[in-house]
Amino acid sequence: MKKLLAIMGSPRKKMNTDKLLDVVLDGIRNSEEDVDIKKVYLKDLSIYHCIGCGACEKTGKCFRKDDMDELYENFNDSDGIILASPVYFNTVASLTKAMIDRCQVYWSSKYVLKNPSIDRNKKRFGLFICVGGAPYKEDQFDACTPVIDLFFRAVNTNYKGNILVSNTDVTPTWQREDITKNAYERGIRFFEGF
Question: Domain NADPH-dependent FMN reductase-like spans what residues (predicted)?
């Protein structure tokens, strides 16, 4: 059985980002894969901000004790990670960014200590879902994707791509058949090539 970690990084439940994530998860559930899905809402977790203290450069672990401890375990155990966030001020939501910043422990353990705190031999696939309320423009998600690329590298995950959706202030994701069909099919195919 494969394990999938689905991270909902929006502060709003049952809205565009959350509903689109659920469509992808429905696709995964209806695929031919046997998958244990764990969905977490960052809004419901207690995650302190990274303070750049450098403690993880000495120990490979964060000194802070909060719900990131469980997420660290989930990252390591997962065969797939889906991260979903709205775009706020041209980047991921602050809940999402706080979680990503706390993944500094992986960079420190890999590159400073040369002793990775995540299994580097485990194969993982990653997908990013990002939803923006504004009308589409070519560079709308340009500040998000480099951050997500580095996040997936930190958690040793093969970044398989994005689902990027604009103009949800006018037409929500659940009213757009082309978007939901694509998201569902991405779920069905998520573990292809695993």
Answer: 3-112
Domain assignment present for residue 194? The answer is: no
Identify the CATH number of the domain in which residue 120 sits: 3.40.50.360
pLDDT range class, residue 52, cuts 50, 70, 90: very high
Q: Which of 17, 10, 78 is nearest to 44 (CA)?
A: 10
When divided into structural domains, the chain yields a total of: 1
Residue 113 resides in a domain: yes
Backbone angles phi, psi at 57, to 5 degrees: -75, -15
Q: Which contiguous run of DSSP H or E holds residue 148?
A: helix 145-154
